[in-house]
Each structure stands twice: as C-alpha cells, then as structure tokens.
Amino acid sequence: MEPLSSFFAVSIILLAVGLFGMTTKRSAIRILFSVELVYNAANLNIIAFSRLRNPPLITGQIIVLFSISLAAMEAAVGLAIIILAFRLNSDIDLRKLNKLKG
Amino acid sequence: MTDPAFLVIAAATVIGAILAIEARDLVYGAAALGITFLGVAGLFILLDATYVAAFQIAVYIGAVVVLILFTVMLVGPVKGEAPIEHRRTSLMTAILVSLMLGIGGSLVSSNAFPGVDACGASCDLQLLSQTLLLGSGSNGGYAIQLELLSFVLVAAVIGALTLAKTERKA
Lengths: 102, 170
Fold this sequence. Notes:
- The complex is a heterodimer.
- By secondary structure, chain A is an all-alpha fold.
- Chain A has a single domain, classed as Orthogonal Bundle (Helix Hairpins).
- Chain A has three helices and no strands.
- In chain A, helix 1 (4-24) packs antiparallel against helix 2.
- The termini of chain A are far apart.
- By secondary structure, chain B is mainly alpha-helical.
- Among the domains of chain B are: 1-77, NADH-ubiquinone/plastoquinone oxidoreductase chain 6, subunit NuoJ (Four Helix Bundle (Hemerythrin (Met), subunit A), Up-down Bundle), CATH 1.20.120.1200; 131-170.
- The model of chain B has no long low-confidence stretch (mean pLDDT 81).
- Chains A and B meet through helix 1, helix 2 and helix 3 of A and helix 1, helix 2, helix 3, helix 4 and helix 5 of B.
C-alpha cells in the first residue's frame, strides 16, 4: 500500500493544472475540462482522507458518489450552454461572449 | 517502497491532465481527459474504493467524455484560439500555481500522513464489507439521498435539453 501522501501529491498536481487552465484558456470547452480536473482532484482527496481513519468510514465514499453525479450534471448543463452560445455567437471564445454587457 | 502500479497510474493521470489542457486539437484533449478519468478510477481502486471507481468509469467515461466529444464535433474547430492571450496573466498564474505546488509538495513530503495499513488482513475484510454495504440496496444508509440525487440528475438533463433545443419554425 502506497502512503497517502502520494495520492495527495497527484491530487494537488491535478488541482494546479486545472487552476492554470481555468485562468489562462479562452475556449469554453477547455475551461470545462479544467473544471472537471478540479472536481477529480477534490474527489481523490476525499477518498484518500477517508482512508486516514482506522477503521475507515464509508461516508467519504458516499460524498464522492454525490460529487461525481453533481459533476456530471454540471457537465451536461455546461455543454448545453456552450452549444447555445455557439449557435448565438458562432464562437465559444469566452472573452467575446459579452452580449449581456450594457 | 513505491508501488509500480501506482507510479504508472499516477503518471498516466498527470500526463493526461496536462495534455487535456494543452493539446492543440480539442478531440485529442477530450481523449486525454478520458485517460485522466481512467487514471483517477485506478487510484480509487488502489485506495480500496472499488464501488466509487466503477461509478467514476460509468459516469465520467460513459457519459461525460461522450458528451464532450459530441459537443466538440457540433461546435467544430475553435476559430483563432490564441494559445496564450495575456502573457502577464499566464505568467502570474504560473507563478501562483507553482507556489501552491511547492507549498503542497513540502506539506506532502513532510510525512505528516504516514501509511494507513496498520491493521492488515482485518482491515481488508472491513473494506470489503464497506463495498458490500455501498452496493447493497440500502446504499450504506444513504438510499433516500441517492434517490433524491437521481431526481436532480433528471432535472439537469431536462434543463440541458431545453437549453440546447432548436426552435422549430412553424
């Protein structure tokens, strides 16, 4: 069994990559990718921490089940919004989506 | 001693994440994202959360990656996506992120979280019974909440359909 620190390391790398993509990319799909990466980092962290207790608790796994489902919903609605934005604007560059700007 | 399985899975996860963000073609990016999801599922298995790993594969690779691929095909190639638009913003972000990585890495390597397997075989039995509990009808005592979650999923799917629906000219 690997020490838990290694899993935290993978989690923090995923979080860093996700944050970098979220702040520097302009394509809406790319930003959605980054959000999914951050979700996965959080899930991995929760599962790893749920192993820290001895004997381990089941609650961490339940929370991650919730989180995965919520991420799926967020992806579905987000992609629908992206398709809508593309139809309205014929572009998904988020810096050019300023229709609501007064 | 580092587990070779962990090394392979962790490397695939991290490389997939970087490729998903940086790949020139969005389709390759989506494929790399799928590899990352698969890698995270493998890490769940290494952490003895097999039910969650199966859920992750079913939801992420079965639904989310397919949705993303369809959207990429519908939207088509992005026009003139500059790789780096605001150089100063990216530089500052890179510095911040590497600072975060450094602090997190030093915390992680300071051995504040030692290995967990102190209980050996009895621990394995407990973990197995956990998975059984999760998979059984009662879902570990959270059956009602999980049912409620499926209602929210239905609401999200209907909302997505409504958003993406084309207006039909009468």
